[in-house]
Design brief:
Helix content is 51%, strand content 6%. The protein is built from 27 helices and eight strands. Strand 5 and strand 6 form a beta hairpin. Helix 20 packs parallel to helix 21.
């Protein structure tokens, strides 16, 4: 492990500057405002003879210096970052060996001698769970490192940890000790509520892992779980590694803003605009490009037969593996297996929810469809182009935006009032006020990060000044990075450290002479995702897998879906908005039009969410599709039956539906579940201050 003495080869002046800012706490910056000053280490100031790699090494291992001192404040996250594939591989093996020793120690305890300390305590924070900060150092960078070799090594580490957790849950000798402890006087009368809950949850996890199976079936189950993990990893790798580029002439992007076109013109091909499949490219095209053929080509690039390599085949393989796992464990389907441990309690409860919602929304959804279709009919007539009599998959976003424009909501005009830096800083101000927290941004050069755009914040409880944890923000798209918006819980609370979360987003970056400007839906997304960070940091549980430390998947979205509604409140919109040139707040007329149009097309949009939830449950049902062809047939049938929109021939959104190939499998309904629960929960807390009159 590296420490301050490692950096003495730096020349005296560089070492002095380095020691003053990096190896010590340095200065920091409160309230989420980005800044650099003399308290930060400037890589450009290195004399030229000192090796930058030595500086990076010290930054990556700075946590060892700041957390080893009893008087030091943990101003950097407690992660000792690993910088090479070899380091990741070696650290992974060290953790796996420590995990096995931990379980072996539990198993070696005589059944008559089991106690909370020698059995349960060891399960609460084992080496291979996120309560160990080095798990993040080994596997997280698969989602965001610019280095393909690092991403590959981190991906391999993730698969090994998944295998290790499966093996641990199938240790009958450890399970026997937990059962024995659950019957002791200490467990029944000597534990607090949290510890008793952990014991119950641990027993359930062991039992759901198939410990009642024969040795042969147990080994089979373990192989299936490992295979599923590998399939999901390969699917995610195809998504993250995609580098597809489309090329369009400026006239083929008619309707997109001039800035959008000029930023992409000539980057790769003279006279052509380069378009990737990342959100800052595809969303503006889907919503504002007047050329239907361009929208169709972008849609096909994302979902067509050549999209994301063999992802559709991987989905078919994955759902079959999960069906076999569920069958071994005595469940009729993977969906039933998953739902029984969610808030819903059963597949039947979810089925009833979705059926009832679809029935209630169908009539309004058809009305919304007809409204959009009429807009298309009128525009085709005005533009003297053939009207094909239907809404295509690549039409819905465009005509939805046209409908909003007809109601005074111009998304491009509204963007001018939401510069990214202001939205980020104001969002953090609001959350600090709401939760009684203080965010302090660490200066660039005082912490290690995987990319120069990454920002890092330290979080404290304002009243007590106690440290709660850290979070990273990595907001812009780049090659090899996770392609959607998500929060990664890097480190869970432990008795020795706080939580660490990271937001990976793909928001548009600033360009020369113009800041990044967000659509209102981007503002909502950022506010929503930041709510997940707060959920992770403010949760009080410290165990690895209990229902208190890790809430049911169909509750995960509830806090953020509740919080994001503030992005529709007058007072919050006024704070979040600031014109990038004039500094003015969102004008009252525009604000009122936005609020009034909030529920425009909502039935049609909700039917799409129901479709995605149904698709998830169908492929994880009692008779999952066996091949890519069967998956295609299912999508071709299900999509128009629910959304009213035909599925384009050969297109299949399962190629890019990453939720279903991770922890959201058979759980995507959680968005609708949370929305319904939020609707009931928020009905008593309506903000009547919705209109702006000044």
């Amino acid at each position: 492990m590296m420490n301050s003495t490692t950096n003495k080869p730096l020349c005296p002046c560089c070492f002095k500057a380095f020691s003053a800012s990096i190896l010590q706490d340095g200065n920091d910056n409160s309230n989420g405002n980005s800044s650099t000053n003399n308290g930060s280490f400037n890589f450009g100031s290195i004399c030229g003879t000192c090796e930058p790699t030595k500086v990076e090494r010290a930054l990556a291992t700075k946590a060892a210096a700041t957390t080893s001192s009893s008087t030091s404040v943990a101003v950097v996250p407690p992660i000792l970052w690993l910088l090479t594939p070899q380091e990741i591989e070696e650290a992974t093996q060290t953790i796996l060996a420590a995990t096995k020793r931990n379980l072996d120690e539990i198993a070696s305890t005589p059944l008559s001698d089991v106690t909370f300390e020698n059995t349960i305590r060891k399960l609460m924070c084992p080496p291979n769970y996120k309560t160990n900060p080095q798990i993040a150092a080994c596997k997280f960078l698969q989602h965001c490192s610019p280095d393909a070799q690092i991403r590959e090594a981190a991906s391999n580490a993730g698969k090994l940890f998944a295998k290790s957790r499966v093996e641990g849950r199938m240790r009958s000798d450890v399970y026997e000790r937990v059962v024995a402890f659950s019957k002791t006087e200490e467990c029944q009368h000597g534990l607090g509520e949290y510890e008793r809950h952990f014991v119950r949850a641990s027993l359930q996890d062991f039992e759901r892992a198939g410990l009642a199976l024969s040795r042969e079936d147990s080994a089979k189950l373990q192989r299936l779980l490992e295979e599923d993990s590998k399939v999901c990893s390969a699917y995610g790798k195809n998504l993250g590694g995609d580098a597809t580029k489309l090329f369009f002439a400026p006239e083929e992007l008619k309707g997109c803003t001039e800035d959008f076109i000029q930023e992409r013109l000539g980057k790769d091909v003279e006279g052509k605009c380069t378009i990737s499949l990342k959100y800052p490219d595809i969303i503006p095209i889907g919503q504002t490009c007047e050329v239907a053929e361009t929208r169709r080509l972008v849609s096909e690039a994302r979902e067509g037969m050549n999209a994301y390599k063999n992802n559709l085949e991987l989905v078919a393989e994955g759902v079959q593996l999960r069906k076999r796992i569920a069958t071994l464990l005595g469940y009729p389907s993977w969906a039933e297996y998953i739902c029984t441990k969610r808030m819903s309690g059963s597949f039947q409860a979810v089925d009833e929810l979705l059926t009832n919602l679809q029935t209630k929304l169908e009539a309004a959804g058809k009305d919304d469809y007809e409204t959009l279709l009429q807009l298309k009919r009128d525009q085709c007539k005005d533009m003297d182009i053939v009207f094909d009599g239907k809404l295509n998959a690549w039409d819905t976003g465009y005509y939805g935006n046209e409908l909003l424009k007809s109601k005074g909501v111009d998304s491009e005009k509204i963007r001018e009032y939401f510069p990214l830096d202001h939205v980020v800083s104001t969002t953090m101000e609001i959350y600090q006020e709401l939760l009684g927290l203080t965010f302090t941004e660490l200066f660039q050069g005082t912490y290690w990060s995987w990319h120069k755009e990454v920002r890092c914040f330290h979080v404290k409880d304002t009243a007590s000044d106690n440290s709660i944890g850290h979070f990273y923000l990595d907001l812009h798209p780049r090659d090899g990075k996770y392609g959607h918006a998500a929060i990664f819980h890097l480190v869970k609370h432990n008795s020795t450290h706080g939580a660490v979360d990271c937001m990976l987003c793909n928001l548009p970056a600033s360009t020369e002479g113009k800041p990044s400007l967000l659509r209102h839906q981007n503002v909502v997304t950022f506010f929503h995702e930041f709510g997940h960070i707060m959920h992770g940091l403010c949760s009080e549980g410290i165990g690895n897998s209990t229902r208190l430390a890790k809430c049911p998947r169909d509750f995960v979205e509830a806090p953020s879906q509740m919080l994001e509604n503030w992005c529709w409140q007058k007072s919050i919109l006024e704070r979040l908005s600031k014109h990038y040139q004039t500094g003015e707040k969102l004008p009252c007329a525009m604000l009122n039009d936005m609020i009034q149009a909030k529920h425009v097309n909502v039935a049609f949009g909700s039917l799409r969410q129901i479709y995605l939830s149904r698709l998830d449950l169908e492929i994880h049902g009692p008779h999952p599709p066996k091949t890519a062809e069967e998956l295609q047939s299912l999508v071709d049938k299900l999509r128009p039956a629910i959304t009213l929109v035909e599925n384009p021939p050969g297109n299949n959104m399962l190629r890019t539906f990453g939720h279903l190939m991770n922890q959201y499998s058979a759980s995507y309904y959680g968005y609708m579940w949370a929305e319904v629960n939020h609707f009931h929960g928020s009905s008593l807390h309506h903000d009547s201050q919705t209109n702006c009159t000044n």
